[in-house]
Specification:
five-stranded mixed beta sheet, single chain, Serine Threonine Protein Phosphatase 5, Tetratricopeptide repeat, alpha+beta, 12% strand
């Protein structure tokens, strides 16, 4: 296969999994278990109903598809939930809606905010600064409403960058004075002080991955107990910067010109 979703075949799907996973994935697909079908800028995402509701994300990379599922399957090939998602795409591609509309319909405020961030990046790249600013401001309002202080910090920073592009420095200073922005900046400065070269966007992405990990852990009773005890210490208490740094050191430690390593997803 050439790696693209638009040229996916059933043979490609079979080559990525065991026969048992394909048969179970087919049963999940035909049984209507593949829900919240979303088209991303670089792939697709679904929720698949099994023992629990699992999130499946499939992204296009050069020459291949990179797939990730929140289920515990770890046998070196695609699980039945990924197979079901690929089959849904293969046979019903029009059922996958753009992420912003899908998130709004599902009442997924966090997903709506992420979709707005992605849309803002597209508008900014096109030079459509008014549209980009509107996306970031709406994202900021969502984050404030859901209590996502790190997401709010990132959204306000994005707003500040748009104001800087416009030359509106008074607005830049107003955004940068927000307590949430200072919190994100404090994490960034603490990492830099320890010799870890990292951008503000990378810090924000790391925090998002921690939130994703918390959401995964909370799908089981044992994981829920761990997440409830551990993550407030890491995320909510900004005074515990050393904990955050320790969790992200391997991701952000540079070795010469080598880019930071990512652990997210499997191919």
């Amino acid at each position: 296969m050439n790696g693209g979703l638009d040229h996916l075949t059933e043979a490609d799907i079979r080559a990525r999994c065991t026969e048992a996973s394909f048969e179970r994935g087919w049963s999940y697909y035909t049984g209507g278990a593949v829900r919240q079908r979303t088209r991303l800028d670089d792939g697709i995402e679904t929720r698949v109903a099994g023992t629990h509701i699992y999130r499946v994300t499939i992204r296009e990379a050069p020459g291949r598809l990179v797939a990730f599922c929140t289920c515990p399957y770890d046998c070196g090939s695609d699980c039945k939930h990924i197979v079901a998602t690929l089959l849904a795409w293969l046979h019903e591609p029009d059922s996958f809606r753009q992420s912003l509309a899908a998130a709004r319909d599902a009442g997924d405020r966090q997903g709506e905010g992420q979709a707005l961030t992605n849309l803002g990046l597209i508008h900014k790249a096109r030079g459509e600064l008014d549209e980009a600013l509107n996306c970031y401001q709406t994202d900021a309002a969502i984050c404030e409403g859901t209590g996502d202080k790190y997401g709010l910090a990132a959204a306000l920073l994005n707003c500040a960058l748009i104001h800087a592009d416009r030359g509106d420095w008074e607005a830049v200073h107003q955004e940068a004075a927000d307590d949430n922005v200072r919190t994100l900046t404090a994490v960034h400065e603490a990492l830099i002080s320890r010799g870890i070269e990292v951008t503000l966007n990378q810090v924000d992405n790391a925090l998002e991955r921690l939130v994703d990990l918390r959401n995964i852990l909370q799908r089981t009773a044992e994981g829920y107990e761990f997440a409830v005890a551990a993550f407030p210490e890491v995320i909510a208490k900004t005074a515990r910067l050393d904990d955050l740094i320790a969790l992200n050191r391997e991701t952000y430690q540079h070795h010469g010109d080598v880019e930071p390593r990512s652990k997210r997803g499997v191919s």
